[in-house]
Sequence to fold (165 residues):
Amino acid sequence: MRTSPPTRKPTSTPARALHRGAAIVLIAAVPVGVAGLLGQDYEQGRPRSELSYEVRPPDIPAGWMTTVGIVALLLAVAAASLLLHRGRSGDADRHQWQVLWPLVGVGVILGLGYHIATAGVIGANIGFGLVLLFGVPLAVVLLLVAVARAWALRAEDRRHASRPS
Fold:
């Protein structure tokens, strides 16, 4: 919990837009990167037409999935690097990570969930049941943590802004 106002330089509107854009890119790139790098999972030795799917995957060649995963990973690393650099230099609030990390965790759960849901199996996809049983509640908890931290940080910033200097 912060006890003093954040020490940051006044940032321009374009810099704030850049920070928000980088945060959005980070949050959006993580699930795409996880799903792309894990690729498509199929039961070996069976034709794909005989396999069962919880969610039928799009017909994308494996090389393209890997390429999309690598590009998304590079975008996520670039966005995180920009946010870390701006936070260390004082141009952005370092406490933004208290909101971003839970959202990145949700992205990892979504990427893994997509990978498991689109796996071609014979019979029941037990992994998808485990994703529903454990992944969905964990994602909801992480979303609630992110919302609560965003609300608390905003309320604290308002309190510090309303105090006379």
The mean pLDDT is 86. The chain has four helices and no strands.
